[in-house]
Amino acid sequence: MQQHDYVPPEQFGGSAAAVLRCLRELVELTGQQSAGGPPVLELQFDEIVTLTSLAADAAQPFLCVSVYLPRRTLAAAAAPPLASPGYPGGEWLWDASEGRYIILHHIGIEQLADETGLLDAIMDARDKAGAWLLSVS
Predict the structure, then answer these.
(1) Rg (CA), the chain
(2) Phi, psi values for residue 99, rounded to 5°
(3) Which pTM was predicted?
């Protein structure tokens, strides 16, 4: 019988320190530099880029996932992403110099069970932002 040294992901248990450790590990695994400051995990999915960090100093710490949508010219009637139902949990910005929307998702760390939950939260934020962009393009 073959022995496996599988180590299950650390359970966060609402701990900002555990989420921070996980982000640092993910940044290191991806070869990104944290320059000694708070870790920021950058992931690129085709034309969509996400930047993820932890707001540990907030009264209730949260994960901030910034979704940078592709540069596009949107129809003048395009509703802000958060004005439509089914898009809770964030705010949006228009970066006029880059011609793109940046959608910020704030996710309470109590909603994150472990590393898998953290990565799922990033993917969910990306999927919601991408779906909105498709709906108005």
Answers:
(1) 17
(2) 65, 45
(3) 0.84
